[in-house]
Design goal:
With 348 residues, this protein is of the alpha+beta class. The protein is 41% helix and 20% strand. The chain has 12 helices and 12 strands. The strands form 3 sheets. A 7-stranded mixed β-sheet has the order 1-7-8-12-11-10-9, sandwiched between helices. The protein has a 3-stranded antiparallel β-sheet with strand order 2-6-3. The N and C termini lie far apart (77 Å). The model has no long low-confidence stretch (mean pLDDT 92). It binds 3,4-dihydroxyphenylalanine. 3,4-dihydroxyphenylalanine binds next to strand 11 and strand 12. The site of 3,4-dihydroxyphenylalanine (DAH) has 11 residues, from strand 11 and strand 12.
């Protein structure tokens, strides 16, 4: 008994160490251990003459040895086959190249470009301004009086360091793209017809419905005799182009310091067609932007004669429009960059 058990353990040790680097080496190992004349097979032959009371223990050990050997050989065979397939592929210069994963456009870029495209067809050009701005361009020149509560409408991030020293400054992250209006009006002469897309920042807790940064598109048109009717026509045209020819708009009186009169614009709910659904809270209307006639104070503060010129302005959130177009309800998805979300816009 001692000698058979020793032989089994000895072979088990060998089997655990065995290595093969080619199909031939592997076959040699299989023959050495498992073939009819193999070492394990001959141990099974020896086993026949083992006294009955030892059969149970030795039989188990032998089966274990055979199983272990087969498993090791199969594993090595798989590895060698993979290696061979890989070598063949690497050496095959006619093989088709690995597919390249193409990126997709971000839904906010798609929607921003669509807005730009619609307004460019009625003569608007693009204007840009800085995201790190000063109080003057974001509030002062837009008719926000100092300490006026309207400043609290937008929770602003102020930059509180200058040359490494902690102190309050009038430098801030712009909270709306209306700041680009003041930059354009001070640097260009009317007629002005610009669209100002860009990122804005507000000190808001991040949730599904609010984020500390988002995107707006601002529109500004200044010329002689620009009227509220012109504003309404431009916005109706935009709404139909963006949401379909059936779309209706309505303007509700509102307040912004930089426009007078001011309004908020709703479109007929593009989900229920205006009948009322959970999206429009049963009203049939959804708000999409703020607008109004540029306040004469704003024109004057930018050096434009308010007796000669008038103008309209509007501002909308790109996330809001995207939500309406593609039903993206959680704002956080736009900045998390989960490719499973982003790839859904591949064919848009
Ligand atoms: N700046 C406003 C905001 O961020 C949006 C806005 C409203 C822009 C009315 C305008 C406007 O140009 O006329 O809430």
């Amino acid at each position: 008994m001692g000698s058979l058990k020793d032989s089994i353990n000895d072979l088990l040790g060998q089997v655990q160490q065995m290595q093969a680097n080619s199909a031939e080496e592997l076959e040699a190992l299989r023959i050495k251990y498992l073939s009819k004349k193999g070492e394990i097979t001959s141990l099974f032959n020896e086993f026949r003459s083992v006294p009955n009371e030892q059969k149970r223990e030795l039989g188990q050990l032998l089966n274990q040895l055979r199983q272990e050997t087969e498993t090791r050989i199969n594993e090595m065979r798989e590895r060698i086959n993979d290696q061979m397939a890989n070598d063949q592929m690497v050496n095959d210069l006619t093989r088709t190249p690995d597919p390249i994963q193409l990126g997709t456009r971000h839904p906010l870029s798609l929607v921003r470009e669509e807005i730009e495209d619609i307004f460019s067809r009625i003569g608007f050009t693009i204007a840009q301004g800085p995201e790190v701005e000063d109080d003057k361009h974001v509030y002062g020149m837009l008719n926000f009086a100092p300490e006026h509560p309207a400043r609290d409408m937008q929770d602003t991030f102020f930059v509180e360091k200058e040359m490494g020293v902690q102190k309050p400054t009038d430098i801030l992250l712009r909270s709306h793209t209306s700041s680009v209006q003041t930059r354009v009006m001070t640097s260009q002469k009317p007629p002005i017809r610009v669209l100002c897309p860009g990122r804005v920042y507000r000190n808001e807790a991040i949730s599904a419905r609010a984020h500390c940064f988002f995107h707006q598109v601002e529109g500004l048109y200044i010329d002689k005799n620009v009227s509220f009717a012109d504003l309404r026509e431009a916005l109706l045209y935009f709404s139909k182009e963006m949401f379909g020819p059936e779309t209706k708009i309505r303007l509700r009186p509102s307040y912004f310091p930089f426009t007078e009169p001011s309004a908020e614009m709703d479109i007929s709910c593009n989900i229920c067609g205006g009948k009322g659904c959970s999206f429009c809270k049963g009203t049939g209307w959804v708000e999409i932007l703020g607008c109004g006639m540029v306040d004469p104070n704003v024109l004057e503060s930018c050096g434009i004669d308010s007796k000669e010129y008038s103008g309209y302005a509007f501002g909308m959130g790109v996330e809001r429009i995207t939500n309406l177009k593609y039903r993206v309800k959680d704002l956080r998805l736009f900045s998390e960059n989960d490719v499973r979300f982003l790839r859904q816009f591949e064919s848009c």
